[in-house]
């Protein structure tokens, strides 16, 4: 939930900065972009931990989000054009990585990709700095980059 809120704040900044963005598409895409992750893990009581499902390995959270949302779109008679537009944003927000269902082809998809990654990287950097300040490590690597914290 924190990641969604962080990504939503990033998206809100982009919407204000770039008025050509479709606000509805950005907000909807941001709120629902990771909903498919609920299908990617299941609790294993023997291991007392969450394990990765075949769904994650074979379909991923982008495709899972579409599976989850499609029945609601049908129930509320959302037009096919709007469905396809929103599915493009959600299904391709990972960029041209394996998890996306297609290439990014709308401004909202590209901006959601940046908003999402920025929040995830900032969170990783915060956790890395916390470990650094606690003296738990002297080498910090985030997103294949070695970080140096200037004090």
TrEMBL record:
Residues 2-120 form the HD domain. CDD domains: HDc (cd00077). SUPFAM superfamilies: HD-domain/PDEase-like. InterPro entries: HD/PDEase_dom, HD_domain. It holds the Pfam family HD. This is HD domain-containing protein.
């Amino acid at each position: 939930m924190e990641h969604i809120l962080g990504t939503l704040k990033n998206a809100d900044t982009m919407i204000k900065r770039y008025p050509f963005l479709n606000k509805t598409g950005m907000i909807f895409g941001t709120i629902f972009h990771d909903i498919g992750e609920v299908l990617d893990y299941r609790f294993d009581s023997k291991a007392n931990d969450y394990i990765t499902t075949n769904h994650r390995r074979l379909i991923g959270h982008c495709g899972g989000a579409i599976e989850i949302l499609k029945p609601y779109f049908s129930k509320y008679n959302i037009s096919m054009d709007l469905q396809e537009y929103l599915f493009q944003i959600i299904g391709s927000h990972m960029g041209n990585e394996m998890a996306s269902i297609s290439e990014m082809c709308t401004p909202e998809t590209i901006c959601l990709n940046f908003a999402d990654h920025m929040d995830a990287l900032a969170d990783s950097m915060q956790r890395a700095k916390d470990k650094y300040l606690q003296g738990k490590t002297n080498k910090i690597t985030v997103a294949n980059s070695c970080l140096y914290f200037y004090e």
